Amino acid sequence: MASYSSRVRSDIARWRQAGLIDAATADLLARDVEANERKSLSFGTILAMLAALLFGAAILIFVAANWDAVPRLARVASLFAVILGGYVGGAVLKTRDHAAIGEALWIVAAAAFGGSIALIGQMYHLSGDEASVLVTWGAATALAAVALRSNPLTVAAVGIADGWLFLKGFDYFTRTAFPHAFVIMAVVLFAVSFWTRSQPARHLIILSLLFYLVLLAMHQATLPVAIPLVIVSIVLFAAGVLAPEPVDRILQLDGYLPLHALLGFLTGLAVIQFELADQSTYDSGFTIASVIALAGIVGAIVLAGRESRGLRWLAYLGFAFELAMIYVVTLQSMLDTAGFFLAAAVLLGILAIVIIRVEKRIRGPATGGATA
Amino acid sequence: MMTGKRLIISALLLALVQIGFLSSIIVGRAAILRNGKEVLLKIEPVDPSDFLRGDYIILGYEISRIPATMIANIPADKLSSDDTSIVVRLKKGADGYWTPTTAWFGKAPMPAAADEADISGHVTQGWDLREEGATIAPDYGIERFYVPEGEGMAIQNDIRVRPFGIRLALASDGTAQIKALVDGDKTLFEEPLY
Lengths: 372, 194
What we know:
The complex is a heterodimer. Among the domains of chain A are: 1-37, no CATH class; 222-372. In chain A, 80% of the residues lie in helices and 0% in strands. Chain A has 15 helices and no strands. Chain A has helices at 4-18, 23-36, 43-65, 72-95, 99-123, 130-148, 151-169, 181-195, 199-219, 223-242, 244-251, 257-276, 285-304, 309-329, 334-366. Chain A is flat and about 75 Å long. Chain A starts with a helix and ends in a 6-residue tail after the last helix. In chain A, 35% of the residues are buried. Chain B folds into two domains: 1-35; 37-190, no CATH class. Helices cover 22% and strands 35% of the residues of chain B. Chain B has two helices and 13 strands, in the order αββββββββββαβββ. Chain B has helices at residues 4-35, 152-161; strands at residues 37-44, 52-53, 56-58, 60-61, 66-67, 84-92, 98-105, 116-123, 135-136, 144-146, 164-170, 176-183, 186-190. A five-stranded antiparallel beta sheet of chain B has the order 4-1-11-12-13. A three-stranded antiparallel beta sheet of chain B has the order 2-3-10, covered by helices on one side. In chain B, strands 7-6-8 form a three-stranded antiparallel beta sheet, with no helix packed on it. Residues 48-54 of chain B have low confidence and may be disordered. The interface between A and B is large, with 41 and 42 residues.
């Protein structure tokens, strides 16, 4: 698939040939495209990261094996050497224009720190739980991300925080409190991500917060969590669609705020629907939630679907989920389901006609000429 | 973009801070091993299905279950435990093993006598303190013993047929550090300082 920049470049060449623009303008445009080209992950970067992750996993598993052929002080010393060599060596490579390999080395160093904590725990038989080890490791990784201003290390810190949330969230057996501290971690890491210019970390944090809220709804009250989530999602969606420029200047999500908001909206409503599903025969709550969900999906497509293909696909996915959900829940009376679907079909059909007409009208003048 | 030299310097500082942090844990633990008061605790048989996980043995002690009646400072209106620290006073028995005599939430009101030692642990929230025969289960951070890969199973089987013990070093604040796993009179694994 051709990237946007290469497509624009071929367009510029065509416009130049057709005489629409002169050579100077063509040159300016081409240079502007090049300057603003979004740096996408290259194959080499991905391979370097994969190698780093494998190396890190090897370190951790080597520690776990507790191999007594190597004296443990030698094991500690070699892990310390990997930490030192990884951070400093990575920094040297980064300044010499090998950014990808440098960042990969930093990831290895961060893994070696985690391995060192595990090894010390093993040496002194510390029985502190894995969760507190993850907190220390995540804090050290976040510190490294700040000190080195590294995007991958920020993502790694978020990943470790997620691991902590996962361990705590599914820890039904011991008497641990619900991991509310995750919200603090998320806020801190979100702030860190601005300094490290890590947009992927921000996306991951938002998704993780949604996961946290689902866990919270499962463990504790459902509706008091889900209803505010739906409302906040609607507000964020509106902000992202109505004032995209200022909102994105603050959050720097590359215009993906509406997509996240839609996901939050759908998640919240799904939680509400699951909660109200078994009382759907005598209570209209489920029906209301379903109507809101369908209306929200349609609204999202109308308001933001044209700019974002990802949002459209999420909306279609949510729509399919809603249909399945409604069908399963109202299965007890096929006639009701049929009636609901018929009404929905008619409404959506009308909406479809409206949308098609609107989109045609918007596009109409644009197709008129290249001079516009 | 950070300038080259500054990036390398911050990487170096970062590595030293992290290594320093890790080293301080090692030094602290080694200090307890070297200077701590030595006590011997009997290991209790643990449910075999839960006994060996991967490369460590789960250890249970007599002090892993403290009767609520042993805790000297429970306020009259307290029905269940807070998330708090606990101090358990140990006394050496005739057989060489140390057993609990009294326990306090928070801190001990008076220092331990010469033939006594304090171990500090952590209690989670919500243990019943009022029911007849109620016990609480503190953690002391000594509930695991790591063994070389593959050696755990044999020890696990032996512990079920004869008494094993754990020799601990106790810091003055009650922090416990495992020193050795003993099988009767024989020391199986003795931990070096480092």
